[in-house]
Amino acid sequence: MNDELLTSYQLAPSILSADFSRLGEQVAMVMEAGVRVIHVDVMDGHFVPNITIGPVVARAISGQVHEAGGVLDVHLMIENPERYIDAFAAAGADWINVHVEACVHLNMTLSLIHAAGCRAGVTLNPATPLSHMQEVLGDIDYALMMTVNPGFSGQDFIPSVIPKIERARHLLPDSTGLQIDGGIGPTTIEAALDTGANLFVAGSAVFGAPDPAAAAKELMASMAERG
Ligand code: DX5
Ligand code: ZN
Fold this sequence. Notes:
33% of the residues lie in helices and 19% in strands. The protein is α/β, with parallel strands linked by helices. Strand 2 (37-43), helix 3 and strand 3 form a beta-alpha-beta unit. Residues 14, 16-17, 39, 41, 75, 148, 150-155, 181-184, 201-205 line the site of D-xylitol-5-phosphate.
């Protein structure tokens, strides 16, 4: 696994906004454009209102993602995420993140992710204080700050989360990635970059664009300007 991807600037297109009738083609398109992190949004209709995809879909694309030198980044917006970690790891997930709001035994869940051979992330909803991840800072490979309330793609970026993201960057060691997710596109990417985050999820801005490869390249060009 290429751990350099955790701490470098990376665009992580979310397949939630892709055309599922030609998913492999859509993933290939953005990876040919230079994307190395593919974001998979898993929703259960309980933790969030929407129901999306499971390990079957992760398995369908993990081979091509790995062959292209990329990683599969699985965002679990589900209750009892500890029950599904082995299934996603077996399906080819490389990074798995869980919401603190959904984990009763967070330390144990992170241990399970590592035991399954994956990198582990902790995710906070917009209104969840940073202090809720304080005691697991040494147990994570990346942190994800939601800039929308999870459940749907195509929502507006919530700017009031920005100070929390900046504080997270100062709190986390340099070796820990900082990801943000929700409402990131051409009009918000500069503000997103200013927060100090290095991993940027984008769903509708990439796969909702007429030319996903061009849209991904444009966002990656903004990142490249920051080094
Ligand atoms: C929201 C998901 C996001 C979402 C991003 O619940 O976690 O990853 O798909 O979509 P956009 O970029 O359209 O906000
Ligand atoms: Zn997501």
